[in-house]
Amino acid sequence: MKLENMTNEELQASEKKLAVRYQQFKDAGLKLDLTRGKPSTAQLDLADGMEGLLKDKLISESGTDLRNYGGLDGISEARKLGSEMLGLLESEVIAGDHSSLTLMYLYLLYAHHLGSQGPDTAWVKEDKVKFLAIVPGYDRHFSICEELGIQLVSVIMLDDGPDMDAVEELVRNDSSIKGMWCVPKYSNPTGTVYSAEVVERIAALGKIAGPNFRVMWDNAYGVHDLFENSQELANVMDYCRKHGTEDNLILTASTSKISYAGGGISFLGASEKNLKYFRKHFSIMSIGPNKLNQQRNLLFLKNIAGVRQHMQKHAEILRPKFAMVQKHLENGLAGKGMGNWCKPQGGYFVSFDALPGLAQKIVSLAGEAGVKLTPAGATFPYGQDPNDNNIRLAPTFPSVEDLDQAMQIFVTCVQLASIRECL
Description:
The protein is an alpha/beta fold. It is built from 13 helices and 13 strands.
């Protein structure tokens, strides 16, 4: 029965039953964790074939001794894979160590303090520096800006991507806005895939933005499809070339949720002019990435076709987990007016919107019953969800059996918090 149609007596009776069920969960002493989108052990096992591949392969195809210093841009084979994943030319890609987050942080650090294209372009020289944050979104993106003192301005996510009417109005009228964060395919946490129209409008922002504007295009889940015949993401650089805004785009990706999470390859893509200045600063702090690790990843994955084939094995592991989440949400909450949620076709998360004002309460109730969730508010800048209703669920790491238990508890907590709110 829908919450708004229940009588006070029905609400009280339901609350008593739910309270008993909730206490049983608390008494069970469970310890379950749905906080971060990590690959499971079974997913990591898929890449164990990398071990041993380096034997007699310590010299690259181009003749580089991979055991030695040098090669700031990464080995050419890795840059080629990065170009295939990002839709760029090989000359527009740097291949680094396992963390694309590191490359994102460094790019913004350099752009802010040293300038993206020389010292005169440093954002820090301006009175205010702002970035657009698409919400709900990825907390680590927000943390980078918070660390650098860059003010975050929220823009809501729609079904086909960011609210571009709002984005364009903000960018056109405020030259202190120097960029925006995008996770364009299977966005964290909503699972949204940007439409071709949205991609082109983002690519054209450089024509109306103030100087040194950058779109941070974090395509972290570009190959993380759960099902075949998934929605394709339009090539943003192709649109940038069309509009003459190549210098306004910075792209990142990695193989860290493809091979080993702690042992993949990261990629930073940009116009050759942007890379020239990034490389200048990057060379001060690095004498090159772990080329041996890049080599073993390439020997294992080979190319984009090999990546897609490998990701089908990931999907086989993840589909039952996402199905378990949807099963409990549908069975326990559908039609009850207690919240709504996304049904992603890929990526690592499920976004749940409770009734306004209840996210913190639900997360607290779940924690007391043994289910650790991402803190309420984490998907918004400064950890402050203005409606206190968004909760990010991360089903990838736990087993299907643990997810079964965790989702029973989560649904009970949503029901209990919603009914108590009505009472």
